[in-house]
Amino acid sequence: MQQRLRAPGHVRPRWQRSDPSTSRTTPRRGPSGRHANVPRHPDPDSPHRRPAHGLTRGRTDTRRTPPSRQRRCTRRLTSRRRVGEKCRDRRHRLDHRSLKIRTFDRRPGAKEDFPMTSRQRFYAYQPESFAPPGETLKEYLDEEGISQADLCRRTGLSTKHINQIVQGAASLSPETAVLLDQATGIPAIVWSRLEAAWQVHQSEIQTRAKLEEHVSWVSNFPLGYLHKMGILRDRKPSLENLQAILKFFGVASPDVAQQAWREYRTAFRRSTLVDGDEYAVATWLRLCEKAAREVGCSNYNKQNLVEALPELRKLTMEPPQVWIKKLPDLCSKLGIALVFKPALKNTHVSGATRWLTPEKAMVALSDRFKTDDTFWFSFFHEIGHLILHGKRLTFLDENPGEGGELLLHGDSKSDRKASPEIEADNFARNALIPDAVFDKFVTQTFTNDPGSIARFARKVGVSQGIVLGRLQHEGIVPWSRWRDMKQSVTFSD
Questions:
Q1: Closest of 128, 84, 119 to residue 104, by C-alpha
Q2: Percentage of the chain with pLDDT > 70?
Q3: Neighbour count for residue 171 (Cβ, 10 Å)
Q4: Strand partners for 364
Q5: How far apart are CA 398 and CA 272, in angstroms?
Q6: In what order do the strands lie in the sheet with 336-340?
Q7: Edge-to-edge strand order for the sheet containing 100-105?
């Protein structure tokens, strides 16, 4: 019989390989029609060998693994109460949502089959109670059969002092920890850590008792938004959420937080303080501050910022999806941490300026009006604060262009000269379109049609939405006309 030719490296299927016990080339079929007497491959290093745990070696892709093998592996992992089984350099886990085997590749540069969702959060384990070091000392004495009187003779301490330590009535000083180290063999650092943990636990109990009186204070904050951002576990006013809010703001108590906000508010420009929600404003400003501290920046230099104004102005011609990436990078080189945050309900905030360090400034902008003309005016308004005013103030701007007021301690309206907000408004207006150029356009070339606005915008090098917004603010064009000339600006967390 002529032998069939096979390609080099060809491996015959397992059901065609010979049985070493019967030397049969073609295995016989069983009653069910399937091949019988198919032995496991004798070579343990062969790639055709079936692993003992029922999974193909180095691979757990459910599209390639037979369903019967998936069920067998699932039952095995479930019965053994295991969520993972190691195989080579991968780790297999049981996904209890769909009862399927998923592979998490831990090799360098590998990606997981599915990313962790925002709802899957991990919290550090914190024990609910601590034992005083006296209990550990009592357990040691009982186990070793040593009396308190004998321990007193070994350490040189009084019987009363040892008894008070065992009862938890007396604290364990570092000197006593050294003496117990010499008498018991337990390191002094262990006794000191037990005492420190016990004292911290007692202080936490006292603090929690004081904070329970201020749980209702949590209801003033936007709990839904804080829960969405992962700051709170739920939306209920509870002691745990109160502690989370205090930790988020970096303060020790609600009274300290209120005092800090009052000090900040003296330097805020708040033209509609009665209508605004100061707790929502404090939340928005804190989110911006935490995000700005994570931005790496060069040292601030006023001259460099002034020279970069034309380049910043040029970005107004770009669409939002372009400048939203370029603008923060350019600002970081100038020593400015630029932060975009969506506007919270009842905040009425368009932007804020604050000096984080003497060499780093924060400029935070919101999408309150959601148009490019308001955004760019707010941006240059905040830049005006950096160039024109000092580093000791914080400016919170609600309605750029309306010239709000900024009151400091001891100031009065009669003593106050030009408001810093009015100066910042004038700076932004002239940085985008100088007053002389705009007046010439209105009196000579404006024909009350979108075409003339577009031509003038290209001539001065700004977006047509900025020109239209200036005309609307001056009362030349109604606010309801030509809205499609403005670009939409929205931010996301």
A1: 84
A2: 66
A3: 14
A4: 339, 352
A5: 8
A6: 336-340, 360-365, 351-357, 395-397
A7: 84-87, 90-95, 100-105
CB-hemisphere CA count at 13 Å for 179?
Answer: 15
d(CA 214, CA 113): 45
Distance CA 453, CA 373 (A): 14
Rg (CA), the chain: 36
- Which residue type occupies 329? D
- Residue 174's contacts (CB-CB under 8 Å, 6 or more residues apart) are 188, 192
CA distance 399 to 368: 10
Band of pLDDT at residue 104, cut at 50, 70 and 90? very low
pLDDT of residue 408: 29
Q: What is the per-residue pLDDT across 307-366, written as a single tens digit (0 to 9) for each? A: 999 999 999 999 999 999 999 999 999 999 999 999 888 888 888 898 899 899 999 999
Q: Spell out the residues 6+ positions from residue 200 whose beta carbon is closer than 8 angstroms to its own.
A: 130
- Report CA torsion sign: 20, 26, 28, 34: positive
Which structure tokens are listed for 348? 């009425």
CA dihedral 378, 384, 389, 392 (to 10 degrees): 40
Rounded (10°) CA dihedral 267, 271, 272, 277: -20
Burial class of 156 by CB neighbour count within 10 A (0 to 12, 13 to 18, 19+): exposed
Q: Whole-number mean pLDDT of the chain?
A: 76
How many Cβ atoms sit within 10 Å of the Cβ of residue 57? 12
Strands 90-95 and 100-105: antiparallel
| pTM score over 0.70 | no
Concatenated DSSP letters of 98-166: TTEEEEEE-STT--BSSPPPTT--------S----HHHHHHHHHHHHT--HHHHHHHH---HHHHHHHH
Q: Is the pLDDT of residue 182 over 60?
A: yes
CA atoms within 13 A on the CB side of 411: 12
Closest to 166 (Cα-Cα) out of 452, 365, 174, 157: 157
Q: Who's near 153: CB < 8 A, 6+ residues apart?
A: none
Contact between 341 and 287 under an 8 Å Cβ cutoff? The reply is yes
Instruction: Using the predicted structure, report yes or no on whether residue 293 has a pLDDT greater than 50.
Output: yes
In contact, 352 and 285? CB cutoff 8 Å:
yes
Nearest to 426 by CA among 393, 462, 384: 384
- 436 burial via Cβ count (<10 Å: 0-12, 13-18, 19+): exposed
Q: Judge whether 77 and 83 are in contact, CB under 8 Å.
A: yes
